[in-house]
Amino acid sequence: MTGIVVSGHGNFASGILSSLELIAGKQKNVIGVDFTIKDNIESLQNKLENAAKELSSCEGILFLTDIAGGSPFRICALLCQELKNSRVVAGTNVGMILEISLSREGISIEELKNMALQSGINAVKAFETREKKQVNNNGI
Fold this sequence. Notes:
Layout: E1 2-9, H1 12-24, E2 30-35, H2 41-54, E3 60-65, H3 71-82, E4 86-90, H4 94-103, H5 109-123
Helix pairs in contact: 1-4, 2-3, 4-5
């Protein structure tokens, strides 16, 4: 099974994992790492390295972050260069983590990464109202 590390600014990780647990229950080998105001780059890196060590018995690690280019993303990308069988995906949403956390048994890290990307896209929806029919001059 692939392990999952979620990280982001503020309490992004703990918040999204709280939603996941409410919807699907506690998930095995899923760790959240928040990057709070009390942290700096070094403390975030230490927390992410510790999370990766906790998941060292997993077949691989998929890092999920909030935004591409942010500190959590950059540190996870650096860790992926050191860790074999790991990937990073930014733009994490609840739909994405829900689908991949429940579907990660028996699939490769590359397939899981691709699933995360597609799930994230599919989870974004807009509510559309029906426009009222235009009334002509005869009131019809």
